[in-house]
């Protein structure tokens, strides 16, 4: 039974471990033998006809949107912005002439996102819901649906739905780019990349013990912590910090590493954990300098780094993958760090206080 915890103490750990299998499942659901995306043609025509993609989501789904937007712009050359649904619903920005809406929602039931979709439908704008739950409200009410095929996600803190959302966005970006004849999309060998991602995720989850040990040294006591990065590493920092907050109640912030010096660095004290995510060539050196600035003020620094950028004393080294897909790997150690911090404090990892898996009130 897919919803059975088996030998796992908590669903969250089971769901973290399921991520390589979810990646492989998505390859078989969405890519043919030649690696070409299998996506509804009419939907591609509708998106190709649009001049702007608006991604709408809440919580972890919003964070998955931040990663996806970069791929729609790179591979499909379509301007894309990402919006928190509870904000967009009540303060809609000035829209482009031909908008296309993508709703990201694990449950497909989030009331804030639905509020936006109701208005989208009133205006007869085309839309797609990317969700884990077939026939959920957001799926039924949108023009198109793409499923996450992640299997039931029971733990309140979302893990495999986040990585599945990013992988499905990659499929869509590739499909749309091919439809629009973009060279970048043609060169994006997603089938190969997702296989590499799956193996890389497996390698990270196989070395859990190391992450548990890191937690006991650096994360078990502090009341606050920072994840920092630039670009897509910043987007992952937001999700990484949210995991830590949700289940271990550490006041964590995901921060653009270059922005830290403009105020927030005042919060760094002796022993404050600052975790740098470093996967992008252009910004690796800059984030390293920003980490050193916090270290000079007493921070305990940790790093999550892509192999080709790694140095001897980096904490977690990630297998190399296409730079647009590094979030699929860099988030996994962060999920495990959050898990072990919560576990070490004796908290109910799967059912953190004050939170619900699906929020159906605005
Ligand atoms: C709740 C959950 C979060 C989730 C958010 C959006 O707050 O606790 O984990 O990210 O809702 O949910 P959705 O189902 O729309 O992705």
TrEMBL record:
Primary localization class, coarse: cytoplasm
Name the record gives this protein: Glutamine--fructose-6-phosphate aminotransferase [isomerizing]
GO MF annotation terms: glutamine-fructose-6-phosphate transaminase (isomerizing) activity
Superkingdom of the organism of origin: Bacteria
Function of the molecule: Catalyzes the first step in hexosamine metabolism, converting fructose-6P into glucosamine-6P using glutamine as a nitrogen source.
Enzyme class of the recorded protein, top EC level: transferase
Signal sequence, start to end: none
Organism per entry: Limosilactobacillus fermentum (strain NBRC 3956 / LMG 18251)
Catalytic site positions: 357
Subunit structure as annotated in this protein's UniProt entry: Homodimer.
Enzyme Commission number(s): 2.6.1.16
Gene Ontology BP annotations: carbohydrate metabolic process
Keyword presence, Mitochondrion: no
Location relative to the cell: Cytoplasm
